[in-house]
Specification:
62% helix, 180 residues, alpha+beta, four-stranded mixed sheet
């Protein structure tokens, strides 16, 4: 069941961070989404890691080489070895997701994707960042993008929060009202 897998991945991630937090760099954390994306685009990679007909040492060695190629070394190999030993390697991507999430929680940071209908100047970006820090009571790190379909306005989203004020949002609200 997916709920059970999420609980197990959650616990592995918490334990990993409790033991290795001081050894994890921000650069390591910033590499995790790319690695998760690679795994999602290559379903054969996870299948290879799950196949019990391939010796676990060979699978473990391959994944460690993969991590080294992506500049994750040392403690990340310990994670792979533990997952292989406990036959939980299929949770690898979920665990990486939770490690990233918990790491940012622990340092008091929320990463935001900020979409706007127009290009924002630095003053507007500072206002948005300050707004998000006040509302979330955490440090904000924003990635800004232009999204013309918003028509006019902003959409700010993190793993936990969504705040939108745009013409597109108003149109969706009107559509819901009109259907009722």
């Amino acid at each position: 069941m997916d709920i059970d897998k999420n609980i197990i991945a959650y616990k592995y991630a918490k334990a990993f961070l409790n033991v290795f937090f001081s050894s994890i760099s921000r650069e390591d954390i910033d590499r995790l989404p790319k690695i998760r994306l690679m795994f999602s685009k290559e379903p054969g990679l996870m299948l290879f890691l799950k196949l019990s007909s391939i010796p676990s040492e060979q699978r473990s060695k391959y994944l460690q080489q993969f991590l080294e190629k992506n500049n994750l070394k040392g403690i990340w190999h310990d994670l792979v070895r533990a997952l292989m030993k406990h036959k939980r390697i299929q949770l690898f991507c979920r665990i990486l997701f939770y490690i990233e999430k918990f790491y940012f929680e622990k340092i008091g940071l929320i990463k935001w994707s900020v979409l706007s209908s127009l290009d924002l100047d630095n003053k507007e970006k500072d206002i948005i960042k300050n707004f998000l820090e006040i509302k979330s009571r955490k440090k904000a790190e924003c990635i800004y993008s232009i999204e013309p379909t918003l028509i006019a306005g902003l959409k700010m989203q993190s793993h936990q929060y969504l705040w939108e004020n745009s013409i597109q949002e108003r149109i969706r609200e009107l559509e819901i009202i009109m259907k009722n």
